Amino acid sequence: MNLIRLLLIMSVASSPLSANDRPNIVFLFADDWGRYASAYAEVEGPESINAIFETPNFDRVANEGALFTNAFVPAPSCTPCRSSLLTGRYFWNTERAAILQGAVWDESIPSYPLELEKNGYHIGYSYKVWTPGIPAHAPYGAQRTAYHQGGTNFNRFSQYVSGKAAELGVEGAKEMLYDEVQTNFDAFIADREKRQPFCFWWGPTNTHRKWIKGSGKELWGLDPDKLKGRLPAFLPDTHDVREDVNDYLGECLAVDAGIGIILNKLEDIGELENTLIVISGDHGIPGIPRAKCNLYDLGTEVSLAARWPGKIKPGRVVYDFVNLLELAPTFLKAGQTGI
Fold it and tell me: Which residue ranges form the domains of the chain, and what is each CATH number?
């Protein structure tokens, strides 16, 4: 179903916004993040993978907005998926922008961030938007709109924390990365003109391999043995496989922690209630059969939650099939671009 129609169905306020009340749009979009969030445990039952860990910030957005249980990507690989999501076109209609190796952005193809910017939005991003490809991150303004004042070490979360743990302790090393997320987002907000609506993209890549072996347990206290009997039936239910998935789940928890930092900042500056927040990932878990780069559910199904006070009824669980292709037109409609 068209995501715009779903937003209208879920709406608790049908009156249109004035131009001065256009929502901020914050898109939190992790690399290689499949459908892994504890909010899904209530849908899937206590025997699911999602029942063994907690993602309180994703769950908050889902509980205060909508949780989508059948969200799929246009393609189970980063570059074609992202080219589709940024343009609202099927990836084969984005020309060379959809090629994984050797991608080139066609400047004649509109992207939703640049269209929002033309309509008065302050736009910016941290970490990955559209890459590998040239010009890097072109559909979001390339380096002109990048906010990495705090750095990009979050993209190597387990590597960084494991390397700094002896010096700072695990929690101290994590705080360094949380401060990075905060600094980057603070810089973006500081560049905004007074009362200007903004559109921000946060794209961490730590959920992309390689992560540190054993980091799920060492950094997050996740027990790989709790995955016994919960893995897809076609995977060997061995300790090594469970540990690998467990480490990936640790990276998902890091993403959730970063989401919390951005939510808290929005709340602190009084913008949370005027912000459309969408959280998702670009495809399924990497390095697993039938997952990333494969046209099975494990490769194409992703987490999706959306929060928009006054527009999305809180606590809704949406079972309809949705495609992330619909996000671009949804954002453009929310921003009242007339496109």
Answer: 3-334 (3.40.720.10)
